[in-house]
Amino acid sequence: MALPRFKVMSLTDAAATRVREIMATSPTPVVGLRVGVKNGGCAGMSYTMEMAQGAAPHDEIVDDKGVRILIDPKAILFLLGTEMDFQSGKMSSGFVFNNPNQTSACGCGESVAITPASPEAVAASH
To answer: What does the pLDDT look like over 87-99, one tens digit per residue?
Structure first.
């Protein structure tokens, strides 16, 4: 019997619902949500998201709650174990990343410091 494959990322019900709503109103066909990280900001890194029209050859593909998430292989160690949520409040709403690899965030909330998971942690999770 094969063991279930570990998911690099997961979505809360609220995040999955919001992503499906955004995808349904896209003017062009999309296959999923591309999530990654990039260098920049006062804390060192920021999360990236965009609608994806197709998968790149080495993308990690995660299907969760009816949403396909495409992750660049270079971002896997930074996102391992992350849960994406969508929160609405009186003053703002948006996606929130609950990332066990995040070590700090800046005051503006746009930039984070992330320590990548070790390759051993990735191997142990599969």
So the answer is: 988 888 889 889 8
Please give the Cα distance from 96 to 87 (Å, whole number): 7
Calpha distance 121→103 (Å, rounded): 17
| Whether 117 contacts 123, CB under 8 Å | no
Query: pLDDT tier at 103 (50, 70, 90 boundaries)?
Result: confident
Full residue range of the structural domain in which residue 87 is found: 9-20+29-125
* CATH for 13: 2.60.300.12
Domain assignment present for 3: no
Q: Are strands 82-88 and 9-11 parallel, antiparallel or unpaired?
A: parallel
